[in-house]
Design a protein that fits this description.
- By secondary structure, the chain is mostly beta strands.
- The chain has a single domain, classed as outer membrane lipoprotein receptor (LolB), chain A.
- It contains two helices and 15 strands.
- It has a 13-stranded antiparallel β-sheet. Strands 1-2 form a two-stranded antiparallel sheet.
- The longest helix is centred in the first third of the chain and has 14 residues.
- The protein starts with a helix and ends in a 19-residue tail after the last strand.
- The N terminus is likely disordered.
């Protein structure tokens, strides 16, 4: 597949407006990504239930039940999130804590109840699969705007919705991705689709975000996230429900010490 980037660099100016102002495709890409982030500003904290369904290339499926909670960052601190496995029994109590960082590698810790210990996830391991799913550790817990550079590619239509397509490039040398292509719908700047390309620039995975619901008259949340790995032919689906906003989350709930006793 021909790299889209090689086609677009040669014509990186978009002219707009009555006064002939010029905006580069890099500036427009950043502007779109910034608007998407700003649309979600102010949620404070949110909690949800997640059903994880893993299906391998032979069609064999297994299911896990997860509780997930996120607290919005403030000042120089990024968002913090924690997820806990409720089932199956052999994974109950397993928990992942993520502290997002602006322009730096996120910090992550995994609690393994069988070992009764908290393990720090090294940056060099974050491209690995999270508990056997098609989501990598770096996919879990979200990202900050500063973690990528951006390039507007084109406008497109996806499922009858007009979209902006933006290519983003991870700044972390430990990312498992060379680039991502993201489809943002023009009306609400929601992420509808993401294509992930590995370090060899081969199409590795595709994420589809479906069944969006509006909460608190402000915040869109996808109830279905479907990640397909085109190389392993496996699929992981996350089905979210029971969203609750503004529960008064506190920093101490997102600490390493809290992982051993956390209940969501």
């Amino acid at each position: 597949m021909k790299n889209v980037t090689s086609c677009i660099f040669g014509a990186s100016l978009i002219l707009f407006g009555q006064q002939g102002l010029a905006q580069t495709n890099f500036e427009k890409g950043l502007e779109i990504a910034t608007k998407a982030e700003q649309k979600d500003d102010g949620f404070k904290d949110v909690k949800s239930k997640v059903e994880m369904i893993l299906t391998n290339k032979s069609g064999v499926s297994s299911t896990r039940q997860i509780s997930f909670k996120t607290m919005e960052g403030s000042g120089q601190a990024g968002d913090k999130s924690v997820l806990v496995f409720n089932s199956p029994a052999d994974q109950r109590g397993t928990a992942l804590l993520t502290h997002n960082k602006f322009g730096e590698d996120n910090e992550q810790w995994l609690y393994l109840p069988a070992l009764k210990r908290v393990k720090r996830i090294a940056s060099s391991n974050k491209s690995g699969p999270f508990v056997g799913s098609e989501f990598a550790f770096e996919d879990i817990g979200g990202r900050e705007l500063e973690d990528y550079s951006y390039l507007y590619i084109k406008d497109d239509t996806l499922n009858e919705q007009e979209c902006h397509v933006v290519e983003s490039y991870p700044k972390s040398k430990y990312s498992g991705y060379k680039r991502l292509l993201t489809w943002f719908d023009k009306q609400h700047f929601r992420v509808l689709k993401v294509e992930f390309y590995d370090k060899k620039d081969s199409h590795l995975k595709t994420l589809l975000a479906k069944d969006y619901h509006l909460y608190e008259d402000s915040y869109w949340r996808a109830h279905i996230l479907e990640m397909t790995n085109h190389q392993t032919k496996s699929v992981t689906v996350l089905k979210s429900s029971d969203y609750q906003f503004g529960l008064g989350a506190r920093d101490k709930e997102f600490s390493k010490a809290a992982l051993k006793r956390i209940r969501l």
